[in-house]
Amino acid sequence: MMVLPVSGAPRTVTLTALLMVLLTSVVQGRATPENYVYQRRFECYTFNGTQRLLDRSIYNQEECVRFDSDLGEYRAVTELGRHAAERWNRQDNLERERAEVDRVCRHNYELDEAVALKRRVQPRVNVSPSKKGPLQHHNLLVCHVTDFYPGSIQVRWFLNGQEETAGVVSTNLIRNGDWTFQILVMLEMTPQQGDVYTCQVEHPSLDSPVTVEWKAQSDSARNKTLSGAGGFVLGLIICGVGIFMHRRSKKGKKTTMKMGISKLLYKVARWTWTSPGFTVFQ
């Protein structure tokens, strides 16, 4: 697991090793369960040119012993880690642990910086209502932002150019599992005819904010728009058929076409516009 830096906070890199091991010396004679998890977590904090290393030992989600480079030794966090801290505070072991500050916090940080800290993936943005409904009815407008990296992102809503802050609800960052994130930012609204809602996204991968608009339209206005678009497409198809036939006739070819004009137009006529409220004809 790697915890990446947050703007304005000290740089942090956490490496977690999950080891299924038997720690007889640590559990000190306790009945060891058949299955358990031992974690070794290295945390590096870089601030004002200095590095601090925390080496945490965690048994079944409970931290039991910790090395802090600022203190220069192991300290027991719980009674379970007392014996381990005493045993690990030998001089030769402490010298190796102090050297980890340079190996983990300086060397590994430089290796990971280009891959993790400087990686940039631009977000994809989509805006849609949570349900279909008429105007002047309460609804939820969803701005879905996905496939971006790093996780720092700002999503804002605007109505007719004015920022909306009331009625805005957001999920936490959601990990996609491929080093990208997604987030949903929703706006409660009661749309009026002609309203323009805008989702604006700012992200380190973008030179300028990305905006996606959603315009409030009545069903009749939307159907007229779709009908006009469908009629335009149908007109282009018929026009193309006419040009094709005209060119064939000019070439003087007498071969009979396998499909006559009537059959071709019949196939065109069966084309159906799939958008709501519009069908050319069938």
From TrEMBL:
GO biological process terms, alphabetically, are: adaptive immune response; antigen processing and presentation of peptide or polysaccharide antigen via MHC class II
Gene Ontology CC, one term? lysosomal membrane
Topology in membrane: Single-pass type I membrane protein
Q: Among its keywords, does the record have Repeat?
A: no
Membrane-spanning ranges: 226-245
Q: Indicate the secretion signal residues.
A: 1-29
Where in or outside the cell it occurs: the entry states: Endosome membrane; Lysosome membrane
Give all residue intervals belonging to the Ig-like domain: 123-227
Q: Which domain of life is it from?
A: Eukaryota
Pfam families (alphabetical): C1-set, MHC_II_beta
Q: Which InterPro entries match?
A: Ig-like_dom, Ig-like_dom_sf, Ig-like_fold, Ig/MHC_CS, Ig_C1-set, MHC/Immunoglobulin, MHC_I/II-like_Ag-recog, MHC_II_a/b_N
Write the record's keywords in alphabetical order, separated by commas: Adaptive immunity, Disulfide bond, Endosome, Glycoprotein, Immunity, Lysosome, Membrane, MHC II, Signal, Transmembrane, Transmembrane helix
PANTHER family named in the record: HLA CLASS II HISTOCOMPATIBILITY ANTIGEN, DP BETA 1 CHAIN, MHC CLASS II-RELATED
This chain belongs to the protein called HLA class II histocompatibility antigen, DP beta 1 chain
This chain's source organism reads: Piliocolobus tephrosceles (Ugandan red Colobus)
Encoding gene (name):
LOC111531076
